[in-house]
Amino acid sequence: MAISSSLGVGSGMDINGIVNQLVAAEGQPQKDAITRQTTAAKAQLSGLGSLKSALSTFQTAVQKLKDGSLFKTHQGTSANESILKVTASAGSVAGAHTLQVTQLAKAQNSIATTEFTGATEVVGSGTLTFSVGTKTPFSLTIDSSNNTLAGIRDAINGASGNNGVTASIINVDNATNTGTISKLVLTAKETGVANGFSVAVSGDAGLSRLDTVTTTNFTGVAAADAKILIDGQAATRSSNVMSDVLQGVTLNLQSAVPGTDVNVDIKLDNAAIKQTISDFVTAYNTLNSTTDKLGKFAGTAGGSNGALVGDSTLRSIRNDLRQQTSSPVTSASNSFNSLKTIGIDIDKNGVMTLDAATLDKALAANLSSVSDVFSSTDGVATRLNTKINQYLQTGGPLDTRQKSLNKQLKTLSDRSDTIQLHLDNVQKTLLKQFIAMDVAVGKFQSTGSFLTNQLAQFNK
Questions:
Q1: Shortest CA distance to 183 belongs to which of 171, 198, 165?
Q2: Reduced to 3 DSSP states, what percent helix, strand and coil does the chain have, rounded to the nearest 5?
Q3: Spacing of C-alpha 12 from chain mean position
């Protein structure tokens, strides 16, 4: 039965449908092949990205063990943190000490005795010169543009040469407790006697009320240094945070309690070492799980293979990592010269386990040897870091594979465009031919109808 079409007026055929089917029959096999190849390449590219990410994450854990300073990390403890807090860092040395905090460092805080009616009251005019410890003095000109209490405060705080003083205004009760007045407060930015300040005034009587040479002009807190006794020896500093009394140790003074001893212990931080080793084991197993999934072979109908099943680079990485973690460390002592000897083992499935008791014994017996197992020239972490760098570096096997796959995808995309262009031309040619046929058929049908009518006239 003829199927009507806007193009098949003469023939009654669905020319568009026929042409589309012919074009599809010619191009679909090629398109399907490109789609399969593109899907496979993208899956491999995604798998390589996952592999690089997993390797990078594992390398982070490896590098923490490659740094030998981990095995020299100490922990500082204070018997009374309300008086003294202690932090040990790189370079600290184990030991026990007795400390007394006899005085805390204080910042100078000077409050003007003059009572002002408010922040907008005019103080006076002239020059204020500030001297802060041994620093270069800085001066301010006070005139009609800034001679109010608030103007002087802002001028002090905004001075480009201000090297240690902060000004503020407080609103408090007056001397007779009958009203509210304003006062200027000057505060040193840093604690300690060396950071104390003075103000010299050259100006009218109003401004001279801010001169610290006249002691009655200001009250408040004098600058003070922090003072401690450590193992009976005195130490004085300008700050309540002392980082140069004990090597690699920061003392954070909290309160002064003369006569009260605080015991301070600096000892090896075994907890941090064990946690870092435990994190390494976890990271290894995470990487192992990732490589398992990427290289998985389903083996059954309907199963899903890993993105890198059968991939030689993936096999090399798995084998290399297994070898680097299992091989003895020639640069370590004979008693502890492999991961297994310090409690780390790998089962037949590639899963790494940690025996905490064995590790504790190794750390207690020979910390230096345990460090060598990881961080010496032939240490496990050293070897692993080198091997991972080889795989992750620009121009390495993973980078080369990714570039090759991206190039393949570009080629497949170009081929797809070329095929589509060819099919578009085929479609145009077929449409032209079918339309010409349709026109011819239409003419034949028109002629046939004419002859039929003529014959019908003769038969009347």
A1: 171
A2: 45, 20, 30
A3: 69
Contact of 219 with 236, CB cutoff 8 Å: no
Indicate the length of the chain as a whole number: 460
Question: Which ranges of 258-346 would DSSP assign to H, the alpha helix?
Answer: 270-294, 312-326
Residues 6+ apart with CB under 8 A from 314: 51, 291, 294, 295, 308
SS3 category, 30: helix
Cα–Cα distance, 281 to 287 (Å, whole number): 10
* The one-letter amino acid at 19: V
Q: 84 and 264 in contact (C-beta within 8 Å)? A: yes
Contact at 8 Å (CB) between 20 and 27? no
- Amino acid at the residue 59: Q
Q: How far apart are CA 314 and CA 152, in angstroms?
A: 72
Q: Tally Cβ neighbours within 10 Å of residue 375.
A: 23
Q: Collapsing DSSP states into helix, strand and coil, what is residue 87? A: strand
Q: Which residues pair with 266 in a beta bridge?
A: 76, 95
pLDDT tens-digit series, residues 327-376: 999 988 778 899 999 999 999 888 999 999 999 999 888 888 899 999 99
Domain ranges of the chain: 1-73+270-441, 74-105+227-268, 109-224
How many Cβ atoms are within 10 Å of 175's Cβ, its own excluded?
A: 10
256 contacts 102 by C-beta, under 8 angstroms: yes
pLDDT-derived band at 446 (thresholds 50, 70, 90) equals low
43 three-class SS: helix
